[in-house]
Amino acid sequence: MGKLLDYEDLVHIRLVSSPEVDPGGRRVLFVVTRMNMEKDRYESNIWLYEVDRGVYEAVTSGPSDRCPRWAPDGERFAFISRRMLREEEKGAEIWIGRVGGGEPRHLITFPLGVNAIEWSPDGERLVVVAPEGKPEEDVKRIEDLPVWFNGVGYVYNIDTHLYIVDARSGEKERVTEGRVNVRAAKWSPDGDRIAYLVSRDRLKPYLVDLYVYDVREGKHTKIVEGFTAWDLDWSPDGEYIAFLGHKRPRGLTSHNRIWVVPAEGGEPRCLTCELDRNTRNTMNSDVRGPSCAPSLRWGEDKWIYFLVTNGGVVELYRVSLRSPPQRFIGFEKGIVDEFSISRRAETVAFTYMDPKHPKELYIHRRRRTERVTEFNTFFLSRVELSEPRHFTFTASDGVSIDGWVLPPPRMEEGSKVPWVLYIHGGPKTAYGWSFTEEFHLLAAKGFAVVYCNPRGSDGYGEEFADIRCRYG
Fold this sequence. Notes:
- The chain has 472 residues and is mainly β.
- 4% of the residues lie in helices and 46% in strands.
- It has three helices and 36 strands.
- A hairpin with a 4-residue loop joins strand 4 and strand 5 (55-58).
- It is globular and about 75 Å long.
- The two termini are 43 Å apart.
C-alpha cells in the first residue's frame, strides 16, 4: 500500500501523447512529457516503439519536441520543437529526424509558432499550418474575434496561413492570402492537391469553408461552405474528402458528425447523423501532454476512424461509405484519448487512461489490444488512489443524470467526510472515467469529490446538450 498522494508526487507522472504509426504499421512515434520543477516548466521528447520487438526508446532529447509525423518512407520523421529558441522568444521550429540516424536536422523556424505539419506523399515537401501577425501595440484597436486565448495571449491580430516547405532546403511558399485562419490541411494521395479548412469571417470564426488547392496550377477551389469544421482526410483513392463538423442545427451545441464530399465538389453526405453522439473527444482530464493526433483518419481498408464521447467514456469508432458507424475499440470504464492508424489500418496505436491510471500507449493489432508502455508504473507504486463510484439521479423532468464520487482513499465505511462539488466548463464537455490528478489530491486530503454531467454536457444526445437560453 502506497502513501497518500501529495503535491510533490505529481512530478513523477509522465504524460504520454501524440501516437503516430508509421505507414507499414511496424513502429510508433509518441511524445512523453514530464515536469521540471527546478525550471518551472514541462519538458517533452519523442519516443519510438517497435511493434514486433515490443521495446521503446527515446529518439529525441527534447526539451520541447512534439507533433511527430512519419515521412512516407517510414524512416524519416518531422517534428515541431523550440530547442534553438530562448525561453522568452516566441516561435517554433520544424526538425527532420531519421530512425537510427543520429541528431535531427533543423529545417525552418516560424516566428510565431507552428500549428500542424503533414508530409507530401513523395516525401519531398511538408504542408505547414502556421500563424503570422502584426507586432502588438500599446493601444490596441480590436475589430476581430476571438480577442484572446489563454496560454497564447492576444490573437485578434493573428492570421493562420498555409505553407509548403521543401523538406531538403527549408524554403517555404505561402499559398493562402488575406485575413484567414486555416484550421487543418491534408495532402491528396497523388500529391497534386491539398485540402484545407479555413475561416475567413473575422467576426464569425466558427464559419469554416473547405477548399482544395491545386499545387501545380496554384488554384484554390471552394468545395464546402459555411460548416463549423475541425479536421479532414482524403479517401485512399483521392475521390472523396471526409471532414469532421456540423452545420449548427442547434447552434454551437450541435454534435460534430463525419461528412464526406466528392473532391471535385458536390453535396456533403453525413455518415454518422443516426449516431446521436458527438464524434469528438471532449472528456475532461489534467494529465494530457502536447497533442496533434488526428480527429479522423481514412484507412486503405475503406473505413474512416474517429473518436466518440459516449456517456462517461470515449471510444474509437469507424464508418464507411457503405456501412453504418460501429464501435471498434472501447472500454467500460476508461478513455481512448488519441489514436493513429497505419496505412492499411492493420495497426492501431492509441493512448488510454482510466481513473486510477494516467495515460499509456496501447496497440491494437491482429484483434488483440495490449498496453505497451509503463511510464507511470513508478508513480502508481508510490501512492494509494481511490476508485470513483458511479451513481445516477433523476432530474426534475425525469431525465437520468450520470455522476461520480471519488472518496478519500482510507475512508471508513459509514464515516462522514466533507465533500467538494466540481462543475465542468464548456459547457459541452464531459466528466467520466478519466484520470484527474486534482480530484485525487483533494481526495488524499480527506475530501469526497463529487462530479457529474448536467444538462449541457457532452456524451449524450444533442437535445441533452442544447441548453441555449437556459444557462445558469
